[in-house]
Amino acid sequence: MPERFKEIIKSRSESGKSFGDYVDMMTHSFTQLSSSTYKSLGITQETVLGQGVNLFLAGFDRISSYMTFLAYHLARAPHIQDKLYTEILDVLGQEFDGQLHYQALQKMEYLNACILEISRLYSVFIRPERVCNKEWIDPVRGVRIPKGVVVMIASWAVNRDPQNYDDPDSFLPERFLPENKGNLNPYALTSFGFGHRNCIGMRFTYEAIKVSMVKILSHYQFEVNDKTTLKFKTGLNLILQFEPLYLDFVQRVPEQT
């Protein structure tokens, strides 16, 4: 994959074209590798490529997976889908004259809650790993983690622990609405990690899903059919994968005024 990124960056550089996208950012970073700033920070070609690969895996894979899972649950819960559709129409119609802007997305609290709930139910990376950089002892349980030990987090178990979430296996977006989030343990949602080393693709993932879902749900609704079933692939220990998921996209009929 790094070699493929190199080919893409080389092609963009030779074309002389600029699209203001992530490839342009990586291309610009390549031109700065010999700068004093990059050298002082230890940024190399491998650093830039590593970030590109991370964003691809952490962002794009999550976008497609989370959109699939969200469509599945919306199809199974029409009342939630209708509530989300109503929010989209209300927000776009009230202040933004039907136009989709970044500010409009930030006002769609129920959409945000739906995405957070999906990321809780289906952590795409099954076991995120971190290296302990200094010895740590749990003051409650007395568990000791020596420096240099790789710590693996069982995301599925944490995100669905009944001690952290009521009815943990159910799709309940309301738990992530602003008025309810204060009741949740902020460290019980492990899908993107925490702190300054959290997932590089988190913000990209959330915003891309919001835009896509608003565009789709403004014109279509999801419905289940006879082939609709969610079946996971077994034997994988890093990325959550699943069999093809079949849903119907039904065009919405505009309401007559």
Can you describe this structure in just a few lines?
By secondary structure, this protein is mainly alpha-helical. Helices cover about 50% and strands about 5% of the residues. The chain folds into two domains: about 1-45, no CATH class; about 60-250, Cytochrome P450 (Cytochrome p450), CATH 1.10.630.
Describe this structure in words.
By secondary structure, the chain is mainly α. The chain is 48% helix and 7% strand. It has helices at residues 2-15, 22-31, 36-41, 45-76, 78-95, 102-107, 109-121, 155-159, 178-181, 202-217, and strands spanning 129-131, 136-137, 144-145, 150-152, 220-223, 248-251. Helix 1 (2-15) packs across helix 2, helix 2 (22-31) packs antiparallel against helix 4 (45-76) and helix 4 packs parallel to helix 10 (202-217).
Placed side by side, the strands forming the largest sheet appear as: 1-4
The topology string of helices and strands comes to HHHHHHHEEEEHHHEE
CATH architecture of the largest domain: Orthogonal Bundle
* Shape annotation: globular
Give the class-level CATH name of the largest domain.
Answer: Mainly Alpha
The residue ranges in which pLDDT falls below 50 over 5 or more consecutive positions are none
Helical/strand content category: mainly alpha
Total of DSSP H or I helical runs spanning 4+ residues:
10
Helix content: 40-55%
The major β-sheet equals: 2 strands, antiparallel
Task: Give the beta-strand count.
Answer: 6
Find the CATH superfamily of the largest domain.
Answer: Cytochrome P450
Range of strand content: 5-15%
Q: For the CA atoms, what is the radius of gyration?
A: 21 Å
Q: Please give the domain count.
A: 2
Distance between the termini: 53 Å
